[in-house]
Amino acid sequence: METNNIISPENLVYKKTSLLTDKILTFCPGCGHGTTHRIVMEVVDEMGIQSEVIGVAPVGCSVLAYDFMNIDMVGAAHGRAPAVATGIKRVYPEKFVFTYQGDGDLAAIGTSETIHACNRGENITIVFINNGIYGMTGGQMAPTSLEGMKTSTSPYGRNVETMGYPLKITDLIARLEGVYYVSRQAVHTAAAVRKAKKAIRIAFENQKLKKGVSFVEIVSNCNSNWKQSPVKANQWMEENMFPYYPLGDIKVGGVLV
Amino acid sequence: MPELKLMKGNEAIAEAAIRAGADGYFGYPITPQSEILEYLMVEDAHKRTGMVILQAESELAAINMVYGAACTGKKIMTSSSSPGISLMQEGISYIAGAELPCLIVNVVRGGPGLGTIQPSQADYFQSVKGGGHGDYRLIVLAPASVQEMSDFVPLGFDLAFKYRIPVLILSDGVIGQMMEKVDLFDQVPRATEFDQSWVLSGKTHDRPKNTITSLDLEALDMEKHNHHLQAKYKLIEQNEVRYEEILCDDAEFIFIAYGASARICQKATQLARDKGLKVGLFRPITLFPFPKKEIFARSEKLKAILSVEMSAGQMIEDIQLATKFRVKSEHFGRYGGVIHSPSEVLEAMENLIKSCDNGNK
User: What is the value of ipTM here, to two decimals?
Assistant: First the structure.
């Protein structure tokens, strides 16, 4: 079959949501950001809330999320997205407001903003990408880097005695009264993507209930900075990240699972 | 109908915020300005107008809540005092870069560091030269009375929206804490329509998506954005200079002072006039834009200028630049939380006059 034939409209079984712009994604091949961007936008599309949604982009690899997502968005300072989202949601309680943050942004420099926005029970959605490393700045140790993990700032492996332990921020947040829904997912297989999308859908639908924060962690790879091939990185993630950050629902309807 | 009330400066700011139709206030307690947040809570501003009031977990969070809320095109403000304003500088730089309108109040206390809770004017440099990282300016308004604490809230919002710029009300612990009568303006309704060319309210089919950011990874584009910002600051310098003159017409010597120091110099001017000295007071109301041309124009007929500020001498540098050093300009001020008295200020002026007379002999 000719290429033109393959991509002819009648043969299309899948197409990009119009809520992603035509700008070419700048993420590394095999990275989970592109997929997560897509499923977040698919959820917004399927809910028909484009005109009601305001997104907050972080500092990190997804700093340019607003170039790819075809919605109103603001770029926050490093770590401050939950405070920025709080400001928007408080003056626009009827809008859908979400943050999209990485592990350095959410669990290191923005820990205070994250915990307090969660504790106040802001009616926002937080999408948290955890790949255990600082991607954009070139592979430095993150709060979520695993014990023994080699990064450019832990070149001999993370020594927990001097560098602290990998932070399970999601488990910490799940215990706060202001948090209504917490789920940890992945996007490295088709099945995982379907589950992750379902969780993100719930996290957006929950904003209508006004019962507090809905939080979805996506455990992802950073094959470039882990210095592995995309396939190898996903294997490594399954073998090393998932045991420490197990997938599944952590809090549903305000109740710990 | 005008409503006269006896109020603290901080309370006047809070009441004015409600009446000006502000949509949101995000703040964190710090002396000597906590009355602003307290007043908004006691008054139940939300019930009165629907205004959102939120106590943040830090000044850092507060300014970023302002950043987020200001993205919607609504009238948003915060307030703090010196150490808290330092903590906000990152956010203020982002707001300036992203060109969002908002109102920030600094009720200045003595520093550096944790300093003291007593009044000061030592945040002048931080306020008028930008404050955070990058090339940017704020419009800086310096109230010298409780009345102006009230009046500068709607003025500040107007300027903030006119130029899409953060406006800073640079007050001090004296003006914030002292009580005076205030003529309160009538309630202004909160806005219901917002400029869809830039605000975040959800992308509708009839307009492109709006993005608010201070980032541009292309240096040439970032330079272009900086040119645009600088052009805006030039325009503000042309259009928005505000000042007041008291007994300046025949004056040979003038005080230049703002805020609480202007009030003290007003008294000292009277005392000097009683002694037959030709002294006047020039009070900058906008510190950025600084009344450079106006001061330069007057400098030729003056024998000397005394800049009075509760600092080790900050505004004096702008005065010397404004006068191009063609008239003798000196600084006087108590600082670190100490307030100079009218008699101290008068003595400093008399010494300056004496030194000029000796120079002429």
Answer: 0.96
